């Protein structure tokens, strides 16, 4: 019975998310579902991206948190074109049904990129689509080399992994080669960028990926 209930929940979410995606596709809006553990640096990465690509990309952000509007306040201050906070009040992820009402509040025609910053969690968000074009996992080197193998679904479902806080590597036992290997062991085709939001290392490559994806969606 439990398996049936879970299947019904996932199927219902897929139906709503497919409607969301149809709306995004009609607007030619590229959408990223950004996932990570708490504290990996999702909001910091978005702050840098919004500031550095100002004038090149118009970026909207839907913030998912259990409580508070702290991250949405930071994103709005960074200059996002559209910001909306969703508080889940205990739920461990954002799903398509939570996103659907927000779409009526935004003018998708003025956006190039929409990022859904999911609730910090390496498990639940991977199972629930929101209508995105790409799932992206942000991974901090402070989490250790083994997490891709301990939480494989997150890395299997994501097409992009951004490894953050590489400026801290001299102070850790983690190694980039091991992180990459473990991630690609569970998802051989995974695209990986290594970055530091603190000093900006590697961000240009990530920005290039974003701009290419946005341009392809517009052209489609």
Largest sheet: 7 strands, parallel
The number of E-state strands comes to 7
Order of SSEs, N→C? HEHEHEHEEHHEHEH
> In angstroms, what separates the terminal alpha carbons?
42 Å
Q: Could you please describe the fold and organization of this structure?
A:
This protein is α/β, with parallel strands linked by helices and 220 residues long. The protein has one domain: P-loop containing nucleotide triphosphate hydrolases (Rossmann fold, 3-Layer(aba) Sandwich), CATH 3.40.50.300. The protein is built from eight helices and seven strands; from the N terminus they run αβαβαβαββααβαβα. The chain has a seven-stranded parallel beta sheet with strand order 3-2-4-1-5-6-7. The radius of gyration is 17 Å and the shape is globular. The model has no long low-confidence stretch (mean pLDDT 95).
């Amino acid at each position: 019975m439990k398996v049936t209930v879970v299947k019904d929940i996932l199927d219902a979410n897929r139906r709503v998310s497919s409607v969301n995606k149809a709306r995004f596709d009609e607007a030619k809006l590229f959408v990223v579902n950004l996932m990570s553990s708490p504290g990996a640096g999702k909001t910091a990465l978005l702050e840098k991206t919004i500031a550095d690509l100002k004038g090149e990309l118009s970026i909207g952000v839907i913030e998912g948190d259990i409580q508070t509007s702290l991250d949405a306040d930071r994103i709005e201050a960074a200059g996002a074109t559209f910001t909306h906070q969703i508080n889940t009040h205990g739920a461990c992820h954002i799903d398509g049904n939570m996103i659907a009402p927000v779409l009526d509040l935004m003018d998708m025609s003025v956006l190039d990129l929409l990022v859904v910053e999911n609730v910090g969690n390496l498990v639940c968000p991977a199972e629930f689509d929101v209508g995105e074009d790409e799932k992206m996992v942000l991974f901090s080197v402070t989490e250790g080399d083994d997490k891709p193998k301990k939480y494989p679904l997150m890395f299997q479902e994501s097409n992009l992994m951004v490894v953050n806080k590489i400026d801290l590597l001299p102070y850790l036992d983690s190694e980039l080669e091991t992180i990459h290997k473990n991630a690609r062991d569970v998802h051989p085709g995974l695209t990986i960028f290594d970055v530091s939001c603190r000093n900006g290392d590697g961000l240009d490559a990530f920005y290039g990926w974003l701009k290419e994806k946005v341009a392809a969606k517009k052209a489609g």
